[in-house]
Amino acid sequence: MTRLERKELGISCMLNTEVGAVLALIRRPTDPNSQFIAPPDENYDSFISQSLKSLRAFIFNPQQEWRTIDPSIYLSPFLDVIQSDDLPAAATGVALSSILKILKLQIFDEKTTGGQRCYKFSYVLTAIMKHQASVLLTDHAVCTIVNTCFQVVQQSASRGDLLQRSARYTMHDLIQIIFSRLPDIEVNDCENSESDTEDSNLDSGYGIHSAVDIFHFLCSLLNVMEVPAAEVLTPQSADEDVQLFALVLINSAIELSGDSIGKHPRLLRMIQDDLFHHLVHYGTCSSPLVLSMICSTVLNIYHFLRRSIRLQLEAFCSFVLLRAASLGNSNQLQEVAVEGIINFCRQPAFAIEVYVNYDSDPICHNVFEEIGKLLCKHAFPAGGHLTSLQVQAFEGLVVIIQSIADNIYKEDISGPFGSYPVEIPEYRPFWEENSKDNDDSEAWVDFVRVRKAQKRKLSIAGNHFNRDEKKGSEYLKISQLVSDPPDPKALAMFLHYTAQTRQDHDRGLSW
Questions:
Q1: 247-256, 384-393, 431-440: which has the minimum mean pLDDT?
Q2: What are phi and psi of 478, to 5 degrees?
Q3: What proportions of the chain, in percent to the nearest 5, are helix, strand and coil?
Q4: Beta carbons of 328 and 312 less than 8 angstroms apart
Q5: Signal sequence: where (predicted)?
Q6: Which of 69, 177, 185, 488 has a CA positioned 20 to 30 A from the CA of residue 364?
Q7: Chain centre to alpha carbon of residue 182
């Protein structure tokens, strides 16, 4: 990925995050003590909401560089929110912050079409705290600055909203400055070590050590006390406020760092382990507002680190998105989860990646299949009037079908492959991965097809096996899932990876 591509994708991710935050606040239940009267549910899809959703659909397909696009296209929806008298003050505040963020990142300049009139907004917003000599600071000094700034954020909570907002803006500026430098930091061999010893030259300024420590600190802010389910839709708590602040900072760090995070092992492991642990854990019990920010965070990570988060993405889709979007949860939570699913499906390669990595792997969930079932269930409900959730789900189905069609047209339709194979031609260990050294595309397609067939037959074998062990064993041989005579390892793998037989396996079996 080139520097320009990384920057363009980071801008798209940033705009998507801001749109998601504003939409979540528009849907958020009203504080009963507030004088603001919320519009009825049927007005959720108002002109403002539709303009934000239209912008979201455009974000990842701009067709040209962001600096050449008229800024009014992506500023107008946020300005409409600010000017509206029918939306809560929190949504107005987030919209103002979004415009501030766009101006700070300098997406447009004096040469951009319509850029001159948009620059007028910069005179009424806070300027960024910057200095050219800041690159000479040491890692320890940078961490001290960030820590001191966060202490001001905490202490200002009881001293007035204006002081706290100012401190938060300052800390946001610091995170942007620090992580925007990450792509320029060279990778050292000693980074693979767990040692925290400073190995860099002090004269070279701060680098990866401060970035790792600060990112670890931001992840720790997500670790708050669990909110009871009955209180999820209540006005924002102090813990939720800290989580949202941390997610905003983490999103900024990821947007500005891009795929350069993957070049630094310690930072990558922190995202794979610490960050995703919190995102999956709190995503299952969070409010719609927090879930919206979590979805944006995972989508940003997917864009830049998709090759490094295979297991993490499966867990997030299976245990967060699909559960939150299921019937029984609040309409607001379902809408946010379905929006998150659609945003992933809008990515050109997501559908095929999910099908190959999960649905065609015997040890993974059928993520693509479950997404399709969920969207169909919401798009075609048993009865009732047309809802915004139903429209969303139908849009998601159209996006998936369009993505599949686009990928078909990119390939040679006169290829040698026909319909999906019904039978497995020969015994192949279903738990073994395809060789990464094999660049033969035809062999890879054949491997994926056979593996998907194996996965379906493993499920059938599990059902047979639970009813009658002998018939189940015979079906394994007939379906070429085990060798003849049976290999003990193949039988063990069948018991281990087939969900239907795990309970029986725990009790012990005699063959």
A1: 431-440
A2: -65, -35
A3: 70, 0, 30
A4: no
A5: none
A6: 488
A7: 21
Residue for token pair 């701009």: 62
Largest Cα span, the chain: 79
Whether residue 486 is preceded by a cis peptide bond, meaning omega within 30 degrees of 0, is no
Q: What are the φ/ψ torsions at residue 285 (nearest 5 degrees)?
A: -140, 25
Helix (H) or strand (E) holding 127: none
Residue 194 neighbours by CB under 8 Å, 6+ apart: 266
Phi and psi at residue 329, to the nearest 5°: -85, 170
* Tally of CB atoms within 10 A around 214: 24
Residues in the chain: 511
Task: Output the six-digit token pair for 106.
Answer: 């300098």
Q: How far is CA 168 from the centre of its chain?
A: 24
pLDDT tens per residue across span 360-418: 888 888 999 999 999 999 988 777 778 888 999 999 999 999 988 887 766 555 555 55
225-232: long-range pairs with CB below 8 Å, 24+: 226/285, 227/285, 227/286, 227/287, 229/285, 232/285, 232/286, 232/287, 232/330, 232/333
Q: What amino acid is encoded at 406 in this protein?
A: D
DSSP class of residue 355 equals: I
Closest of 338, 317, 454 to residue 397, by C-alpha: 338
CA atoms within 13 A on the CB side of 266: 20
Q: How many other CB atoms are there within 10 angstroms of residue 20's CB atom?
A: 26
What span, in angstroms and rounded, lies between the C-alpha atoms of 395 and 239?
Answer: 34
SS3 152: helix
51 close to 76: Cβ distance less than 8 angstroms? yes
Query: In the structure encoding, which two tokens stand for residue 166, read together?
Result: 């100012």
Q: Could you tell me which of 498, 504, 426, 431 has the C-alpha nearest to residue 462?
A: 498
Packed helices 441-467 and 488-497: angle between N→C axes, nearest 10 degrees: 80
Given a cut of 50, whether residue 246 has pLDDT beyond it is: yes
- Gyration radius of the chain over CA positions: 25
Alpha helices (H) in 28-138, listed in sequence order: 47-59, 72-83, 89-104, 115-118
- pTM passes above 0.70: yes
Hey, what are 83's tokens? 């000017």
- Say whether pLDDT at 430 is over 70: yes
Model confidence band, residue 305 (pLDDT cutoffs 50, 70, 90): very high
